[in-house]
Amino acid sequence: MRAARSRVILTPEHVEIRLEPAALGRRFIALVADLVLVLAATSLVVRFAEALLPGALGTIVRALALLALSWGYHVYFEVRHQGQSPGKRMVGIRVVDGRGLPLSVEQSFVRNVVRVLDALPLGYALGAVACFLDPLGRRLGDLAAGTLVVRESTPPASDRRAGRARAFNSLRTPRLIRMARHRVSLEEREFLAELCLRADGLDERARLGLMEEVGGHYRARLGIDDPHLSGESLVRDLTAVLFC
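Request: output the structure for the sequence above.
Response:
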């Protein structure tokens, strides 16, 4: 299979984001792993239905369970776990909005409804052909929903330096870590890393003003209630949480 083209996005802050489409092989392995988990969960539901419900009602419950798990499984993990089902996490890929943002519920629902077409006629053959023909390696569901399956990016050394934590980071709590990683998009993470890297080269007054503005935005967005934490410290601590 020919390599899919990467998508380059320029944010309003003039930070360049490069999205690398996931290879078809990785996507197939993730699909098989997720299918095994869905079938295992369905099998448990079927056993309970057979034990507790009469024949006709049990058959209906089994059909509904299979339908709900087949679609609900993917929608749940894509929306609630940053575009990663267990299978995708295993092979290091995730689903994102075409601009690199987290998926909306509507996008995830559309791409998984269209999964029925991608699976035709057998073994996701139509979806594989679509991935092969599309420059960004998208199946029909991705084209319909405006989504993209990308490789997990490993933060470069410069990003890790930008996210280096202070001796004490008040944001490193389970609640804030979960909230930050769920609510801060890929674009925003790259922007925060770039800001921390370039901060020392800015005029002091400009740096402090910019840091206070950005810090104030995330203070309100993430519900950070620490009046003693300056805008600059908040930005650097948040970047450390996201990249370390």
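The radius of gyration is 21 Å.
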